[in-house]
Amino acid sequence: MKYNIIDHTGDLRIIVYGKSYKELFQNALYAMADCIVNIKNDVIESEKKIKIKRNSYEDLLISFLSDALYELEINKILYYKSNIDIKNIELNGSIYGFYLKNDVEYDYIIKAVTYYDLEISPRNGFAKIVFDI
Which domain holds residue 126? Predict the structure, then answer.
């Protein structure tokens, strides 16, 4: 299991599992996309190169997920898979996704990735993320 949804009033809260920053970030991207629309197959119609450098892993995760969310809002591409490397609070790689059809039903409409109660702990094997819905 890559993630679990936790009951939370007014927002969407998830716990993502992984033993490294790379695994946590990859699973966080998948979890966010899967919460938006249940991902049923492995379709890839778009690839985007991505390079982000921040001052903390929290900032890096927020930027990573926010960039993917931006692509959904602007270009209707749902990125859910990634091939990334993370070193020294810098992320490099590619994200992969597919175009959402106009008639798709969203499970959750995510407005933003928040810093509220954000926790990233590869040593303990999890990250907690709250989305504004």
Answer: 3-132
